[in-house]
């Protein structure tokens, strides 16, 4: 191995780097390092120190070096890749530590990766952190069962410490590969352009790293449009040949050719974006193949908005074949997308053929709403009894339009209608509602009943009318109404209840009008309910009523039993027992008498308990009063005599004085108090006695 260097006078000076180990098979020079292979192995020379720093022996010495030559390539200035036979070594040149120098070179080589390949290596090249390997392949023929040469392979592998991972593999078709040997193939690469040259005796194959455009080309060729679109979106900054929009349009056309119209329409949203011209172009394409319905759901409705003609064209398509779909679009699409007048006219024309079609009527009402013709929309909704009628009235304040449609609203949903009318009394008066419902008393009752439940006084002028309405349509609520109403004419109510033989209501009215005896008589004779009669007597708490009840019950054993069980706490039971005829059989008499005795004992116990509590409270209060009266009272210069109004204490403290202080805190000089005419020595405050607040007895007499 000779090295030629320019010397003096620009002449070349040769020097021998190595000799004596057979033919030099391969040489690679990079930076300051030269690597070469001969029959014995691979050597590396450091040009700076002019020293050979390593010798990597070949592994399989059974292989002829001329038939299976060594492949060398530098990955960078310090990384050498060696391929020989089926073995791959990746060597790293490293600096030796100063302490290890001695007589050794200042650099050494470490094998960082070593692994074996499946086939013999004809060439190596780096590709980022991976390797490109050209392999010479032999295989057994299926026909002759003899080993023969196969097509060479170009593999991309990922080196691992003791193995490798295959990333991709391609078999190359070159002319005469059946007669070629391992030494006939070579792999060279152009580092700056990422180009790889596979050289065989008859062909040169150029390989280059695929970019995203190549990948997209391949996907489009395989009709994998969705993957191509996704790849283009991910790499939109790096692709040069392709445009996302073109790929997307090709994808839409492909889906339409396959008959997947719904999917094609759905993809339009993403692919066409805000391009109105493309949208309109695609809509016409769908129209040509009769698939406007497929794209209708995906048409843009805001930003961008297409021409009104596009939306009208779709609506007409549905109107001709699918009323429900047409109604759905009208509900979903904003009313400003299309010419409302044109669509209304089209719907009206169709209704001439089918005037009772509820779907078309409902849709026409919505169109009228968009067009702010609320009166017409309301008429249709009421005719259809549609649930949105109340929402429409509230939303657009249509109360002036429903004043003559109250009956229709009540027939549709009386509860919602009444709530709405009562919530908006300022817009539709109570009198107007009652007047409109005059011919429908059952609806009139529903309205007035709910009005009464909300406010007992608002509809007071209609309380007389309500008596007959309750009696006719809602008797269970008649009695609560009579109890709660303070504006109801009792005579009129009594007359109606007596005509209809409403006993409970009549009893209540009689008692309210003061005729309790007639009410009690009615309970006993009409209802024959002793419990209710007793309850009534308890409510009235009238001795004469109890007397009437006893007289009426005295010849009726079941009534006597009821009285005995309930009368004990209100009337002396002896009054009833003395009047019972001798020999009369009374059901459960023993139990009734026992209950009377138990009630009496309970009353005695209650009285005794109350007495104990009263005595204890009186004693406690007496002690408290005594403690209070035993306390001292402050008398100073600011206090005055309540009689003479002079200071209660003399200005000269050396003089004698006599002061009387009462519990009421009034103070007198002893001599200012009037002389008591009573025999008792207890004195009372004249001021408090005069004001009738009770006499305050003297609690302190001060003398000096």
TrEMBL record:
<dbReference type="GO" id="GO:0009267">
    <property type="term" value="P:cellular response to starvation"/>
</dbReference>
<dbReference type="Pfam" id="PF23411">
    <property type="entry name" value="Beta-prop_Vps41"/>
</dbReference>
<keyword id="KW-0863">Zinc-finger</keyword>
<dbReference type="GO" id="GO:0008270">
    <property type="term" value="F:zinc ion binding"/>
</dbReference>
<dbReference type="GO" id="GO:0030136">
    <property type="term" value="C:clathrin-coated vesicle"/>
</dbReference>
<keyword id="KW-0653">Protein transport</keyword>
<dbReference type="InterPro" id="IPR011990">
    <property type="entry name" value="TPR-like_helical_dom_sf"/>
</dbReference>
<protein>
    <recommendedName>
        <fullName>Vacuolar protein sorting-associated protein 41 homolog</fullName>
    </recommendedName>
</protein>
<dbReference type="GO" id="GO:0005770">
    <property type="term" value="C:late endosome"/>
</dbReference>
<dbReference type="GO" id="GO:0034058">
    <property type="term" value="P:endosomal vesicle fusion"/>
</dbReference>
<dbReference type="InterPro" id="IPR016902">
    <property type="entry name" value="Vps41"/>
</dbReference>
<dbReference type="Pfam" id="PF23555">
    <property type="entry name" value="zf-RING_Vps41"/>
</dbReference>
<keyword id="KW-0813">Transport</keyword>
<keyword id="KW-0479">Metal-binding</keyword>
<dbReference type="InterPro" id="IPR057779">
    <property type="entry name" value="Znf_RING_Vps41"/>
</dbReference>
<dbReference type="GO" id="GO:0006623">
    <property type="term" value="P:protein targeting to vacuole"/>
</dbReference>
<feature type="repeat" description="CHCR">
    <location>
        <begin position="418"/>
        <end position="562"/>
    </location>
</feature>
<dbReference type="InterPro" id="IPR057780">
    <property type="entry name" value="Beta-prop_Vps41"/>
</dbReference>
<dbReference type="GO" id="GO:0030897">
    <property type="term" value="C:HOPS complex"/>
</dbReference>
<feature type="domain" description="RING-type">
    <location>
        <begin position="641"/>
        <end position="689"/>
    </location>
</feature>
<dbReference type="InterPro" id="IPR001841">
    <property type="entry name" value="Znf_RING"/>
</dbReference>
<dbReference type="InterPro" id="IPR036322">
    <property type="entry name" value="WD40_repeat_dom_sf"/>
</dbReference>
<dbReference type="InterPro" id="IPR045111">
    <property type="entry name" value="Vps41/Vps8"/>
</dbReference>
<dbReference type="InterPro" id="IPR000547">
    <property type="entry name" value="Clathrin_H-chain/VPS_repeat"/>
</dbReference>
<dbReference type="Pfam" id="PF23556">
    <property type="entry name" value="TPR_Vps41"/>
</dbReference>
<keyword id="KW-0862">Zinc</keyword>
<comment type="similarity">
    <text>Belongs to the VPS41 family.</text>
</comment>
<dbReference type="GO" id="GO:0016236">
    <property type="term" value="P:macroautophagy"/>
</dbReference>
<dbReference type="GO" id="GO:0005794">
    <property type="term" value="C:Golgi apparatus"/>
</dbReference>
């Amino acid at each position: 191995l000779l090295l030629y260097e320019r010397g003096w006078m620009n002449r070349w000076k040769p020097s021998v780097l190595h000799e004596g180990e057979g033919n030099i098979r391969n040489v690679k020079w990079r930076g300051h390092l030269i690597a070469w292979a001969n029959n014995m192995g691979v050597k590396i020379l450091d040009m700076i120190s002019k020293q050979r720093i390593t010798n990597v022996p070949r592994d399989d010495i059974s292989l002829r070096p001329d038939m299976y030559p060594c492949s060398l390539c530098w990955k960078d200035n310090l990384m050498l890749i060696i391929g020989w036979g089926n073995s791959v070594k990746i060597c790293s040149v490293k600096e030796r530590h100063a302490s290890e120098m001695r007589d050794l070179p200042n650099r050494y080589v470490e094998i960082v990766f070593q692994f074996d390949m499946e086939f013999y290596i004809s060439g190596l090249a780096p590709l980022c952190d991976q390797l490109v390997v050209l392999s010479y392949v032999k295989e057994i023929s299926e026909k002759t069962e003899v080993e023969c040469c196969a097509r060479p392979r170009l593999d991309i592998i990922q080196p691992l410490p003791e193995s490798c991972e295959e990333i991709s593999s391609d078999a190359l078709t070159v002319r005469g590969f059946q007669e070629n040997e391992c030494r006939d193939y070579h792999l060279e690469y152009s580092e700056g352009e990422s180009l790889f040259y596979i050289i065989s005796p008859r062909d040169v194959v150029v390989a280059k790293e695929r970019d995203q455009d190549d990948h997209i080309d391949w996907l489009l060729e395989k009709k994998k449009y969705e993957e191509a679109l996704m790849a283009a979106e991910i790499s939109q900054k790096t692709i040069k040949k392709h445009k996302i929009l073109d790929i997307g349009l090709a994808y839409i056309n492909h889906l339409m050719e396959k008959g997947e119209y719904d999917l094609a329409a759905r993809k339009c949203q993403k692919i066409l974006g805000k391009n109105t011209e493309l949208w309109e172009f695609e809509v016409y394409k769908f129209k040509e193949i009769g698939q406007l319905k497929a794209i209708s759901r995906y048409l843009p409705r805001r930003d961008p908005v297409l021409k009104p003609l596009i939306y009208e064209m779709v609506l007409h398509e549905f109107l001709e074949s699918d009323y429900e779909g047409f109604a759905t679009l009208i509900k979903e699409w904003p009313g400003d997308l299309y010419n409302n007048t044109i669509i209304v006219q089209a719907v009206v024309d169709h209704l001439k053929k089918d005037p009772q079609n509820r779907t078309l009527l409902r849709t026409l009402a919505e169109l009228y709403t968009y067009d702010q013709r609320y009166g017409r929309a309301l008429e249709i909704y009421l005719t259809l009894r549609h649930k949105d009628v109340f929402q429409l009235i509230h939303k657009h304040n249509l109360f002036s339009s429903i004043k003559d449609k109250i009956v229709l609203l009540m027939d549709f949903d009386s509860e919602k209608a009444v709530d709405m009318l009562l919530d908006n009394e300022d817009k539709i008066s109570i009198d107007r509602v009652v007047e409109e419902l005059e011919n429908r008393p059952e609806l009139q009752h529903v309205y007035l009943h709910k009005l009464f439940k909300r406010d007992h006084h608002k509809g007071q002028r209609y309380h007389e009318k309500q008596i007959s309405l309750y009696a006719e349509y809602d008797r269970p609520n008649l009695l609560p109404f009579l109890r709660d109403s303070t504006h109801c004419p009792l005579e009129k109510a009594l007359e109606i209840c007596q005509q209809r033989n409403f006993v409970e209501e009549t009893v209540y009215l009689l008692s309210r009008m003061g005729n309790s005896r007639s009410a009690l008589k009615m309970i006993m004779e009409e209802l024959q309910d002793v419990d209710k009669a007793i309850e009534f007597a308890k409510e009235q708490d009238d001795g004469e009523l109890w007397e009437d009840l006893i007289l009426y019950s005295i010849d009726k054993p079941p009534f006597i039993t009821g009285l005995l069980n309930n009368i004990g706490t209100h009337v002396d039971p002896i009054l009833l027992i003395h009047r019972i005829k001798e020999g009369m059989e009374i059901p459960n008499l023993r139990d009734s008498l026992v209950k009377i005795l138990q009630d009496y004992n309970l009353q005695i116990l209650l009285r005794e308990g109350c007495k104990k509590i009263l005595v204890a409270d009186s004693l406690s209060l007496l002690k408290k009063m005594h403690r209070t009266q035993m306390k001292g009272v402050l008398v100073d210069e600011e206090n005055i005599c309540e009689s003479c109004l002079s200071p209660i204490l003399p200005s000269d403290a050396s003089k004698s004085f006599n002061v009387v202080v009462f519990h009421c805190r009034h103070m007198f000089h002893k001599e200012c108090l009037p002389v008591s005419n009573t025999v008792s020595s207890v004195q009372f405050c004249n001021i408090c006695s005069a004001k009738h607040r009770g006499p305050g007895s003297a609690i302190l007499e001060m003398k000096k």
